[in-house]
Amino acid sequence: MLYRTVPKTGDKLSILGFGCMRFPSTRTGGVDEERAIRQIRHAIDAGVNYFDTAPIYHLGKSEQVLGRALAGGYREKVRIATKLPHWSVFEREDMDRILNGQLKTLQTDHIDYYLLHSLAGASFKKMRDLGVVEFLDAAKKDGRIKNAGFSFHGNVKEFREIVDACDWQFCQIQYNYLDEQNQAGTEGLRYAAAKGLAVIIMEPLRGGNLAGRVPASIQKIWDEAPAKRSPAEWGLRWVWDHPEVTVVLSGMNDEVHIDENLRVADEALPGSLTPDERALIDRVRDEYRRLMKVGCTGCGYCMPCPFGVDIPGCFAGYNAHAIFPHDRAIKFQYLGHHGGLMGEKSHAGLCRQCGKCAKICPQHLPIPALMKDVSKEMEGMMGVVVPVLRGLLWCSHKIGRVRRAIMGEKAHA
């Protein structure tokens, strides 16, 4: 296993991190806990020391399974990363309540890498106004967390502003050979690294879509390579080739895939791809873009939209759905990020056809007309799914407040 160093602390992290969002499942759809625990411990024994989870993963089961997997001496061998969900925070006391619950669930007295989950500009402003910076400082001071960071799903301008706003130790961004210009992108990767942040990469294979069942025209290009590698190995090597990257997360849930990733993580030094290999990957990227419905490069010239539409983000979700129609999670991710569940609404349906974006698009895309297509394809369930989920979060918050009030009265009785 190769390791890379966290610039601000000197901590050595395995270049392969274990993403705990996609544990193996049972026939009834629940987590196959026994198998997941075997996989986690096998990865630790092979040198993986970074494990990434969150309260929302597997509807709350991910942290529970990881906590149990790390019993028996495994906790001391790893760094745990988990997240504070900003959509569940309504007041300052929620931050401590959530963190303290996570410590109990994970069966530990500290979180090594604690992230504000899925930030963009508006969600960070909300959290900062509620006192999250003071919360993180206090949690570091009393030892409940060791390092503070954030995961990100916004544009590069917002990313740079968040990086500059606090003394972060690390950040987590989506990055792969299709997302060089989406969200934080290459510019954000280099900016964070230049500021001394460790950079954790999520979605290096676009949720597995860049591996396994790839389009025939893509596989034809891979088959031309002298070095015979799977699409997954090519994708991971491309990300690890960047010296600014610290850890690459893989949502590993199959033993064969875990062993393949472990093998590659023994070899993937930064700068190890040859010029010919990088050119081959560029051809694959270009072919994927040819298959997309919208030729958006994610440059962001069209932003900000006066009506709040995240134009590049909406196109990215629309294109992903077109290329990978078998992946049902893509629409739910679109609804979560753009439908108002995990921040401000930014979906295509907000477009008012003003045409300002089309006038300045370097690709000369008919953006207002395309927004109608995106809304029709991606937002059919939004009017039902998002209000229901928001209602559940609100009810959970209110029930928690009542329960805490009752327990407080009992304590004073």
What layout of secondary structure does this protein have?
Blueprint: E1 3-5, E2 12-14, E3 16-19, H1 33-45, E4 50-52, H2 61-69, E5 79-85, H3 92-105, E6 111-119, H4 121-129, H5 132-141, E7 145-152, H6 156-165, E8 170-174, H7 185-194, E9 198-202, H8 216-222, H9 231-240, E10 247-250, H10 255-264, H11 275-291, H12 311-323, H13 329-338, H14 356-360, H15 367-378, H16 382-412
Parallel strand pairs: 3-4, 3-10, 4-5, 5-6, 6-7, 7-8, 8-9, 9-10
Antiparallel strand pairs: 1-2
Helix pairs in contact: 1-2, 6-7, 8-11, 12-13, 12-15
Question: What would your notes on this structure say?
Answer:
This protein has 413 residues and is an alpha/beta fold. The chain folds into two domains: 3-284, TIM Barrel, CATH 3.20.20; 296-387, no CATH class. Helices cover 46% and strands 12% of the residues. The protein has 16 helices and ten strands. The chain has helices at 33-45, 61-69, 92-105, 121-129, 132-141, 156-165, 185-194, 216-222, 231-240, 255-264, 275-291, 311-323, 329-338, 356-360, 367-378, 382-412; strands spanning 3-5, 12-14, 16-19, 50-52, 79-85, 111-119, 145-152, 170-174, 198-202, 247-250. β7, α6 and β8 (170-174) form a beta-alpha-beta unit. α12 (311-323) runs antiparallel to α13 (329-338) and α12 (311-323) packs across α15. The longest helix is centred in the last third of the chain and has 31 residues, at 382-412. The protein is globular. The mean pLDDT is 91.
Shape: globular
Strand content: 5-15%
Number of helices: 16
SSE ordering = EEEHEHEHEHHEHEHEHHEHHHHHHH
Helix/strand structural class? alpha/beta
Q: Examine the secondary-structure arrangement and name the CATH architecture of the largest domain.
A: Alpha-Beta Barrel
Q: What's the name of the CATH homologous superfamily of the largest domain?
A: NADP-dependent oxidoreductase domain
Whole-angstrom Rg:
21 Å
**What's the total count of β strands?**
10
- Spatial arrangement of strands, main beta sheet: 3-4-5-6-7-8-9-10
